[in-house]
Amino acid sequence: MSSENKTLAMHLPPGMKDLEKFQELTLKNWHYSVDNAFNSISHFLKLSNSTIGSLNRMQKENLNTYFPARRTSENVEDTSSRNSSEELKSVTTGVALITGGIGGIGTAVCKRLARDNARIIATYIKFEKENALIWQEERQKEGLQVDLYECDVSDFDACKKMAGVIENEAGRIDVLVNCAGITRDAMLKKLEQENWDAVIDTNLDSVFNVSRNFINGMINRNYGRIINISSVNGQKGQFGQTNYSSAKAGMIGFSRSLAIELADKGITVNCVCPGYVGTSMVEAIPENVKQAIISQIPCGRLATPAEIADAVGFLASRESAYITGTELAINGGLFTG
Questions:
Q1: What's the CATH number for 94-330?
Q2: Is the pLDDT of residue 141 over 70?
């Protein structure tokens, strides 16, 4: 050791050499300390995960005890072996109101939504009462329970009264299908004003009258499906149907605008635009006339009411939440514009 180092060593505090040895030993074995630290952290995380897992299981058990109807996707998966496949596949649509529900397309819509576990409410107008009751009995024989309400949907006050009664009895309306409609065909030069008014009132004004009186409830619940039954003739026009085509085109504009207003409220508004449908009324027309109609349809046939109803069922479902302000054309290729 040099004289300078000896001199320096003489002035070091007592125990410094021991401190240096301890420091050297610590540096040499630093990885042991790190390993021990990581081991401790790992053990802590395992313990935490185990504790959190236990708490989650206890929470689920408590929820299932006090709220047995509440089921998450995990609950469904865990109990799938104890439930029928039909129960798991079912979709609860809620409470559905179908205006003009006793007509050809309306009947198919009632049946379709009932398959999705919806409570069905259908409207009829006063002069249809006898037929409506017969219709209701026929549905009951098929195993379908439908509540009937008499309402002139072209009358705003009547719709307001109906909305109050239905929401008081049923609690809510989740799905509204505006299906009521009539035709009074004539070339414009021969079209009487009363037939213009009748078609506009029943086919277009009714959509405002009914929707206006039910949307506040949907807004308050942040959920709703409004489906308006328009027509291919509202998209392309039709000879002798200025009144009908105007009303159906108006439904499309109404639906697009209302869809924008309600988009952030969990409510969708869409149109279904059928082409020619094989309802009892269409099937009753002369065969040569019916064949002339079919010859214009690329698919070579009429639509079935069930095909229209299936489209309504899709738009009424929760899975269609991102579809709003659009028209679903079901016309066999008759119009593709």
A1: 3.40.50.720
A2: yes
User: The tokens of 92 are what?
Assistant: 């609860």
* Active site (annotated) includes residue 244: yes
- Which of 18-27, 138-147, 302-311 is predicted least confidently? 18-27
Helix, strand or coil, per DSSP, at residue 270: strand
* CA distances (Å), origin 48, targets 53, 175, 315: 8, 46, 45
Distances (CA, A) of 205 to 32, 185, 213, 315: 82, 18, 13, 22
Q: What is the rounded distance in angstroms from the CA atom of residue 325 to the CA atom of residue 260?
A: 7
Q: Is 18's pLDDT higher than 90?
A: no
| Distance, CA of 327 to CA of 204 (rounded, Å) | 16
Max intra-chain CA distance, the chain = 129
**From CA 235, how far away is CA 315, in angstroms rounded?**
19
User: Taking the CA atoms of the chain, what radius of gyration do you get in angstroms?
Assistant: 35
The model's pTM: 0.73
Alpha-carbon gap, residue 163 to 166, rounded angstroms = 5
Selecting among 124, 223, 244, 276, the annotated active-site residue is 244
Coil vs helix vs strand at 225 = strand
- Report the alpha-carbon angle 113-119-121, nearest 5: 90
- For residues 186 and 183, give the distance between their C-alpha atoms in angstroms, rounded to a whole number: 10
Rounded to whole angstroms, the Cα distance separating 132 from 102 reads 7
